[in-house]
Amino acid sequence: MASPMPKDPKEEALSRHGSLNLRPQAVTDPQFSGDEFFDPRDTVQIRYEMVRRVEVEGDPVSATARAFGCSRPTFYHARKSLQEEGLGGLVPKKRGPQRGHKMKGEVLSAVLSAKEEDPGLSAEELAEMVLSRFGVSVHPRTVRRALSPRKKKRP
């Protein structure tokens, strides 16, 4: 059995840091096709060069965004992020809530105390209690996560 092709170390690093462009073939700018320095897999580099091309060289936004495999809204977002946060602002961020936002404070305390009073309550029953008492709809899986002991992350 043949061993799988080893991945490119740069591609692995880009993936690990969340900046791997999943559509490198969409980047049609000539600078990214013949030069080893400019890598169409590097989202941060693509966004930086796209903003630089418009801001410094005065190229039109629509054509530039298209050549870099992006939309106009992506260009405007990249430009704003670069202005406000610097180069780090070009690193893609995870979307959506990063932590539980419904199971906090009073709601969490009520769930924990209800479970302590009656250990036989199911997550479904606790979710119904939260809805009736607080008017907040939570999924039973969210209740189970809130009740489970936190695991320590490895360094």
- The average pLDDT score comes to 88
Straight-line distance between termini = 35 Å
Put simply, the count of helices is 8
Q: Taking Cα atoms only, what radius of gyration do you get, to the nearest Å?
A: 24 Å
Assembly level: single chain
Molecular structure report:
- 17% of the residues are buried.
- This protein has 2 domains: 9-90, no CATH class; 105-147, no CATH class.
- Helices cover 52% and strands 0% of the residues.
- The protein has helices at residues 9-16, 31-34, 43-57, 61-67, 72-85, 105-117, 123-134, 140-147.
- The mean pLDDT is 88.
- By secondary structure, the protein is an all-alpha fold.
- Helix 6 (105-117) packs across helix 7 (123-134) and helix 7 crosses helix 8.
- The longest helix has 15 residues, at 43-57.
- The protein is built from 8 helices and no strands.
Secondary structure layout:
Layout: H1 9-16, H2 31-34, H3 43-57, H4 61-67, H5 72-85, H6 105-117, H7 123-134, H8 140-147
Helix pairs in contact: 3-5, 6-7, 7-8
Outline:
It contains 8 helices and no strands. With 155 residues, the chain is an all-alpha fold. The chain has 2 domains: 9-90, no CATH class; 105-147, no CATH class.
